[in-house]
Amino acid sequence: MTQEDLMTQEDLMREPVTVTERGRVRGSTTPHGFAFLGIPYAKAPFGPLRFGPPVAPDSWAGDRPAIAAAPTAPQPATGFTLIPEGTIDGGEAPDCLVVNVFTPDLGGAGLPVLFWIHGGGFTNGTPSSSWYNGDRFARDGVVVVTVGYRLGAEGFLNIPGATPNRGVLDWIAALEWVQRNIAQFGGDPSKVTIAGQSAGGAATMLLTTLPQAQGLFRAAIPMSGSVFPAPSPESTLRLTERVAAQLGIAMRVEDFVGIAPSALVEAQIAASSNPEGGIAERFAGQLNFFPFVDGDVVPRPPMLGVAAGIGSTTPLLIGATQEETNAVLRMVPLDDGQQEEALVALGLDESGVATYRSAGGSFGQQLGQAVTDRMFRIPALRVAEARFDAPAATYHYDFEWRSAALGGVGAVHCLDIPFVFDVLDDDHVKVVAGDAPPQDLADFMHAAWVSFVSAGDPGWSPFQPDRRATMVFDETPKVIDDVLAPIRSLWP
């Protein structure tokens, strides 16, 4: 670092500037520190770099402005979403491989770091949602990094001749950027916790099992997403074949490179609208675009990695919401035969089907709870069970606070995020959580996440076979032993 790179505290308060390995960045002040938005950790992955691994950005001269959110990765338009995820158009070659950093201190504070991977089914989302504003974590001594990565076909389509699992490599490249640069933002590279929700939770869990990611973090928080079903190589290539057919091209990387990103998004939408199979795929948690086992970047299905003890030295905080998909599925129109078929397709036997059918309410509500349990709560539980003998602790939670907004969405998917980030005052929170969500619950959850990121302990007992202690987040948070006992034996 040269003398001109050194700034006094007075300079920092006037104009926050710090130094990255590629050049200086100028951020903005926040109520509790500083924010630096849209810092590139890799070049825009288009043109000659398309469908390849992330490539380090070029250096720049002077102070690079980092005061506005960067363009989002190419993705379908979604309309209303539970999380405010407005896309930012960057044209056909958006500079979307970026990080946002929130910090209370640009000195050598050695603060713990929360590295956040956004959700969106691996096809949508942004690192710059107002629900991911890290300023309240900064207030409590945690540096937050949110990451943008390639989505959909750009990041995860299995194209012959292309680098596989490009989105996964983006996460790893961003974590490597953190290792090299976060000290300049007040963070300690040895105190990184990876976290994410939904697809970001599955990404987090996957990273704990990947050889290339080892040593880049010390703890992990998969929220409402953990282990995913591993598609066969044949099925991933059949999806590629459908996308290529929509575009009228051959299944070769050189043909895909010539397609505009916006056209590729349209083709992936069309190819996804007629998924293979029938009702089983519709309700069994099968996504079209997500990390696949390629033998290299992703050498094995993540649950096999967990079962083999990979990542067992990484402290884990894992859980889900009680009613992730219930509101979405409660109005699903199915006849009697389809209802039975849908529950069987999830993996329930006759006894399991009877248990969910006897729960009361509409069939849509019963199906919604079964899908919630099958896709989110049970996988998180199985991960926790697989780590009973792990050297690092596992902490389990179940978010059960129910929102009456939007016709009564209950403890819906994504609802826990504004509590964790302590952003209940965000305007969009009222839309999803109502006018008066409990701030006391946000205080409690946020403090638990701060404690886990800082010290590896959220404040309750680890998940062990004698108790299966689970923190239930509700109006009055409390630990309940074996909270999923009524359903855990119903699922394979």
Describe the protein's topology.
Blueprint: H1 9-14, E1 17-20, E2 23-26, E3 28-30, E4 33-40, E5 63-65, E6 98-103, E7 111-117, H2 135-139, E8 143-147, H3 152-156, H4 166-181, E9 187-197, H5 199-207, E10 219-223, H6 233-247, H7 253-257, H8 261-272, H9 279-283, H10 302-307, E11 316-321, H11 326-329, H12 336-345, H13 350-357, H14 363-386, E12 394-399, H15 417-420, H16 427-433, H17 439-455, E13 469-473, E14 478-481, H18 485-488
Parallel strand pairs: 2-5, 7-8, 7-9, 9-10, 10-11, 11-12, 12-13
Antiparallel strand pairs: 1-2, 3-4, 4-6, 6-8, 13-14
Helix pairs in contact: 6-8
Q: Can you tell me the CATH superfamily?
A: Alpha/Beta hydrolase fold, catalytic domain
Q: In order across it, which strands form the biggest sheet?
A: 3-4-6-8-7-9-10-11-12-13-14
CATH fold-level assignment: Rossmann fold
Determine the strand fraction and express it as a percent band.
15-25%
Q: Percent helix among the residues?
A: 25-40%
Question: Could you characterize what this model shows?
Answer:
The chain has 492 residues and is α/β, with parallel strands linked by helices. The chain contains 18 helices and 14 strands. The chain has one domain (1-396, 451-459): Rossmann fold, CATH 3.40.50.1820. Helices cover 33% and strands 16% of the residues. Strands 3-4-6-8-7-9-10-11-12-13-14 form an eleven-stranded mixed β-sheet, with helices on both faces. A three-stranded mixed β-sheet has the order 1-2-5, with no helix packed on it. Strand 1 (17-20) and strand 2 form a beta hairpin.
